[in-house]
Amino acid sequence: MLETKEELLAELKKSKDWEKNQDGLWFWEKLGRLPFKILDKLTPAFIHKKIGVILDELGKYIQSGGRYLSSVSSLKSYYPHKNVSTLEDLDMVSIGEMDNAVSKLKNNRRRLATVQGASTGIGGLFTLSIDIPLLLGLQIKTLQDIAICYGYNPNDKKERIFIVKVLQFVSSDIVGKRAILKQLSLIDSPDEDAKRNVISELQGWREVVIKYRDHVGWKKIFQMIPIAGIVFGAFINRSAINDLSEAGIMLYRKRRIEERLVQLDNQTITNVKNLSD
User: Fold this and answer.
1) CA atoms of 34 and 19, how far apart (whole Å)
2) Is the residue at 79 inside a domain?
3) With contact defined as beta carbons under 8 Å apart, do 161 and 199 qualify?
4) I want to staple 89 with a disulfide (CB 3.0 to 4.6 A). Which of 84, 110, 175, 214 is the partner?
5) How many Å apart are CA 84 and CA 98, to the nearest integer?
6) How high is the pLDDT of residue 146?
7) Residue 85 belongs to a domain
């Protein structure tokens, strides 16, 4: 193992501290908790309709990956100086090196989101309908690539569920975030009933879209102003990718660290048994 148990526990504490800090609501989230009728009046109908299309997109994604699947073959580009070509090879890559890889990925996607938001903000109302599905696609792809960097295959249905849960996490209030963290902690559980419960929660995945609409949709109102929409679009999309990337990184790194701790414990048990024999 590349890290000692003490080092892994120290890194795990960072992830858990981050989770505790999510209890603070930022301005957007506070406003997002206004009665839905008020939000409904603020958000134009065409935005509601456009974001409604995401229902079908997310449905296809959960079932088959749809058109959003990232390829594990991109692994080499994230670790150019390492002999890495498969997810199994990441067993020989430290958590710190994984963190560096996703940090570069995050910065790259933030720049891309900024340009994308500014570009689609030029035409205000006329280009806004293009921006919403583009942003969703970039968000899903970013989470998939973060998964790959930490050694998880986004082609697996379990990972697609995890990714949608991260999307839901970012859009949720404090109570929702706590519930999702509890669900995500069970996704690798050896208890089949626990895992089934997490998957069954996705039967209500339409809630993700509703929360996504409340979380992102009304912010896009500011992007409807021609020319000024460039500034708003760049800021909103950059912030959306930044927040999502941070959540994806912290939740995936925590999962990877916990797996390594289990491996260390199993290795210790095996060594003790061998000595006793």
Assistant:
1) 24
2) no
3) yes
4) 84
5) 12
6) 97
7) no
In the chain, count H helices and then E strands. 12, 0
The answer to whether residue 218 scores a pLDDT higher than 80 is: no
Band of the pLDDT at 179, cuts 50, 70, 90?
A: confident
| 154 assigned to some structural domain | yes
Q: Which tokens belong to 36?
A: 């839905």
Q: How many domains does the chain have?
A: 1
- The b-or-e profile of 154-181 (16+ CB within 10 A means b, else e) is bbeeebbbbbbbbbbbbbbeeeebeebb
The residue segments making up the domain with residue 116 are: 5-66+93-276
Per residue, what are the HEC states of 217-276? HHHHHHHHCCCHHHHHHHHHHHHHHHHHHHHHHHHHHHHHHHHHHHHHHHHHHHHHHHHH
Q: How far apart are CA 218 and CA 41, in angstroms?
A: 10
Is residue 87 a part of any domain in this protein? no
The model's pTM is: 0.82
Q: How far apart are CA 200 and CA 54, in angstroms?
A: 20
CA angle at residue 86 from 83 to 91, to 5 degrees?
Answer: 75
Q: How many residues does the chain have?
A: 277
Position 63, amino acid: Q
Burial of 97 (0-12, 13-18, 19+ CB in 10 A): middle
- pLDDT score, position 165: 87
Q: What is the C-alpha to C-alpha distance for residues 130 and 7, in angstroms, rounded to an integer? A: 45
Share of the chain above pLDDT 70, in %: 65
13-48 confidence digits (pLDDT tens): 999 999 888 765 554 455 544 444 444 454 555 555
